[in-house]
Amino acid sequence: MHIKMENIWKSFGTNSVLEGVDVDIKPGTVHALMGENGAGKSTLMNILTGLHKKDKGKIFVDGKEINYTNINESEDDGIYFIHQEINDYPEMTVLQNIFVANEITTKLGFLDNQKMKEKAESVFKTLGIDISLDSKIKDLSVGQRQLIEIAKVLMKDAKFIVMDEPSASLMTEEIERLFKIIKDLKAKGVTVVYISHRMEEIFEICDYITVMRDGKSVDTKAVSESNYDEVVRKMVGREITDYYPEKTNEIKDTIFEAKNLESNGVFKNINFHVREGEILGFSGLMGSGRTEIMRGVFGLDPLDSGEIILKGEKLNIKGPKDSISKGIGFITEDRKDEGLILDESINDNIILPVISQFAKNHIINDSEVHDLVDMLVNRLKIKSESRNDPASSLSGGNQQKVVLAKWITISPQVLILDEPTRGVDVGAKREIYTLINELAEKGVAIIVVSSDLPELLGISDRIMVVHEGKITGELSREEATQEKIMTYATGGQ
Fold first, then answer.
1. 338: which DSSP letter?
2. What is d(CA 343, CA 317) in angstroms, rounded to the nearest whole number?
């Protein structure tokens, strides 16, 4: 399928998002769409699929001008969008989610569960997904849910697929599997638009790159004719040197300890410590238990046994409120459902953990709140029209910055970050890395869980590796390599 978009404009109120974008996506190719958060990439694809209405411009599908008014129309033509922000049904099973609104029925009109299971299992085998079809979505990790979204599209007669940050929560093994699927799709003539901030992926899997900046299309080139530095320069409009900022944090004494943590059937015998000013990385394959360990530490999920010790004091954490009161913050990987209240303003999201501090006689001091919010918005370079805009109006990267700002307000002693740069552009990533370093310099003990191995290697002072609910390796900054991490992550020694 050949898609051409000419002179596409789009504004939301006074906020101009697209200003004359041109893109020509050739049939049977993998076409990268790159740009900073807020550049307009997702909006452009949402216009293509009929989710948003363009203000002006033309769209051609195989030479014919079209104007989809909803996603059903675009899907009828074989155009599908795998969104970064997953829209599934947490209380339903995996099987129900896969076939929602597309159920297979018998001649009598009854659900044909057997046929649906056979079809799902076939696609799962192709993807290497080992997840029970009877599991509830709410019990799965973000990465597992992402794979299921991909599986849903593979079951349909797709001619054109948009993938928005499909690898953001996947580890190396899963990404390799995804790439094989994309290559197979390409061989069958399917066109793929690949939106990602992971530069190495773009150069491995894509044929063409279109770079967007500030709502405009800057350039389109064959991947073979471009390079990392050129793409980054076009994305941000400037040179970015020292992708991972120089570390100047002074590491002092142990401030946080986890001893013999156990959650039945999930993880056991978990022991680790973090020192004041240290950045401790956590790695592991999808389903290894790394996120579940952090959720247990923070009190989001119950622990069956073990001790959590902060500055020599054994803590009794029954829930997140207890953790927050002790100065422990947690940036969840699922910012949409757990990190933010999307319908509330940027302002309200940021001050949520400390709102009581600004209330005197149950009246909030608006002036103090505004000063704090303005400082954090400016410091983190959160792009918005107003601090009163809902969090849902922001790009994924700017939403992540709001989550970061929220936890900075508590002046944490320990800060846990789970996939802190998921779906975040190259410029914003560096800003987040710089902020992490600054917090470490102030003595905050930081734990970073990430699927991005170069990221862990670039920012961590020490790395723990998790495999099947157990810590299988510990590596210093000097001895850590991708190969060693993957060895431990797969159960090797």
1. I
2. 29
User: pLDDT tens across 458-493, in order?
Assistant: 999 999 999 989 999 999 999 999 889 988 887 776
Helices (H) and strands (E) in the chain, counts: 16, 22
Dihedral class, residue 413 (left if φ above 0, else alpha if ψ from -120 to 50, else beta): alpha
Q: Are strands 445-449 and 414-418 parallel, antiparallel or unpaired?
A: parallel
User: Within 10 A of 91 (CB to CB), how many other CB atoms are there?
Assistant: 10
> Are 142 and 294 within 8 A, CB to CB?
no
Count, residues in the chain:
493
Confidence class of residue 368 from pLDDT cuts 50, 70 and 90? confident
Distance CA 242, CA 19 (A): 31
Q: Per the confidence metrics, is the pTM higher than 0.85?
A: no
- What's the pLDDT score for residue 10? 93
CATH 3.40.50.300 fits 254-489, yes or no: yes
**pLDDT for 428:** 77
Closest CA to 405 of 331, 334, 338: 331
- Burial state string for 50-83 with b = 16 or more CB within 10 A and e = fewer than 16: bbbebeebebebeeeebebeeeeebbebbbbbbb
Say yes or no: domain 3-236 is CATH 3.40.50.300.
yes
Provide CB contacts within 8 A for 319, sequence distance 6+: 299, 300
Q: Which of 181-185, 383-387, 432-436 is least confident?
A: 383-387
In one-letter notation, the amino acid at residue 463 is I
Look at residue 333 in the predicted model and tell me its pLDDT: 78
Stretch(es) of the chain classified as CATH 3.40.50.300 = 3-236, 254-489
Rounded to whole angstroms, the Cα distance separating 23 from 21 reads: 7
Segment 176-198 shows an average pLDDT of: 89
E strand or H helix that includes residue 355:
none
- Give me the residues paired with residue 465 across strands: 283, 473
